[in-house]
Design a protein that fits this description.
alpha+beta, Multidrug efflux transporter AcrB transmembrane fold, Alpha-Beta Plaits, four-stranded antiparallel beta sheet
C-alpha cells in the first residue's frame, strides 16, 4: 500500500470532515442554538424530575416543556424501568417551574414532581475546566510515554497530532448531529484517545521491529510495509468494537445513545488516523537524511 505517497489525499479527507463540523457550528450559532448543544452540566440550568404515574412518550413531555418555557430542544430522559422522567432546561424562574409542573399535571393527572435543582454557572465552569485539563494531561502523558518508548520525540509528536485529529472529528460529530455535550463527553474523548493511541502504538512497534530489515533511506518503504502488516489487525479490532458499540446504540436508551454515537465516530476516525495519518505525520517530521533520497 502506498499510504505515505498518498498522504495528501488522506489529509484532505480529514480536513473536509473537520470543515463540515466547523460549518455546522457556524450555522447552529447563527440560528441561535449555540455552536454545540451544551448540556446544563456545562452551561448551567434547571434539572427537574417527575414521576408521571403512567406510561408516557418523551415527545409528549418535550412538547409540554417547549410550549410552557419557549425553549427549543429541552433534554428529556425517561428513567428505564420506571414511569419517571428527568427534564433539563436552561435556567427557569420559580413561576415558570410552577407552570411546568401544572402543565404536566394537567396532561398526566397522576404525576408528581420529585425534585428540582439548579446547576450553577460556577459548577458548569468547573466542568469545562475539568474536561480540558483531563484531555491535556492525557495527551502530555502519552507524548512522554511514546517519546521514551520509541526513543524519538517525533514519534510522540506524530501520535499526539493524530489524536488531536480524532478529537476534532468527534467534536465535529457533536456539532453535526447536535449530540448533547454533557458528562459523557469527557468519557468519550478520553476513551477515544486511549483506543486510538493503542492502534497507533501497534503500528509504530512494527515500524521499529522492521528497522533492521530496511536500509537507512528506505524509511518510506518501511512505514508502508509496517502499516500493511498490521492492517488486518487494525481493521479487525475496529470492526469488532463497532459491533459492540453499534448494538449498544441500537438497543440502548437515549442517554446511552448520546454516549455510543460519538464513540462510533471516534472508533472509525481513530482507526483511520492510526492507519493513514500517524505514520505519514511521523515520516514528515523525520529529517531529510532519514527519508528516501
Amino acid at each position: 500500500m502506498k499510504i505515505i505517497e498518498n498522504r495528501k489525499k488522506y489529509f484532505i479527507v480529514s480536513l473536509l470532515v473537520i470543515l463540515c463540523g466547523v460549518i455546522a457550528m457556524i450555522i447552529n450559532a447563527s440560528a441561535g442554538r449555540g455552536a454545540l448543544n451544551l448540556d446544563i452540566d456545562f452551561t448551567g440550568g434547571t434539572a427537574m424530575k417527575f414521576d408521571i404515574g403512567q406510561e408516557f412518550n418523551n415527545d409528549d413531555i418535550t412538547a409540554i416543556i417547549e410550549k410552557v418555557t419557549g425553549q427549543k430542544s429541552p433534554q428529556i430522559q425517561k428513567i428505564i424501568g420506571t414511569n419517571e422522567v428527568s427534564i433539563k432546561t436552561q435556567s427557569l424562574d420559580g413561576d415558570t417551574r410552577e407552570k411546568v409542573s401544572l402543565a404536566i399535571k394537567e396532561a398526566f393527572p397522576k404525576s408528581t414532581m420529585l425534585s428540582v435543582a439548579d446547576v450553577s454557572g460556577t459548577v458548569s465552569g468547573e466542568m469545562q475546566k475539568t474536561a480540558i485539563k483531563a484531555v491535556v494531561i492525557a495527551c502530555v502523558a502519552m507524548l512522554i510515554y511514546i517519546s521514551i518508548r520509541f526513543k524519538d520525540f517525533r514519534a510522540g509528536g506524530s501520535a499526539i497530532l493524530a489524536l488531536v485529529h480524532d478529537v476534532m472529528i468527534v467534536i465535529a460529530s457533536y456539532a453535526i448531529f447536535r449530540i448533547p455535550v454533557n458528562n459523557a463527553f469527557i468519557a468519550v474523548i478520553l476513551t477515544i484517545l486511549g483506543y486510538s493511541i493503542n492502534s497507533t502504538i501497534v503500528i509504530f512497534d512494527r515500524i521499529r521491529e522492521n528497522g533492521p530489515k530496511f536500509r537507512k533511506h528506505q524509511t518510506l518503504e518501511k512505514i508502508n510495509s509496517s502499516i500493511s502488516q498490521t492492517l488486518g489487525r487494525s481493521i479487525n479490532t475496529s470492526v469488532t468494537t463497532l459491533f459492540t458499540i453499534g448494538a449498544i446504540y441500537v438497543f440502548g436508551v437515549q442517554s446511552i445513545k448520546e454516549f455510543s454515537l460519538p464513540m462510533i465516530v471516534g472508533i472509525i476516525c481513530g482507526g483511520y488516523s492510526s492507519i493513514f495519518l500517524s505514520g505519514s505525520i511521523w515520516y514528515m517530521l523525520l529529517p531529510k537524511s532519514e527519508k528516501e533520497s
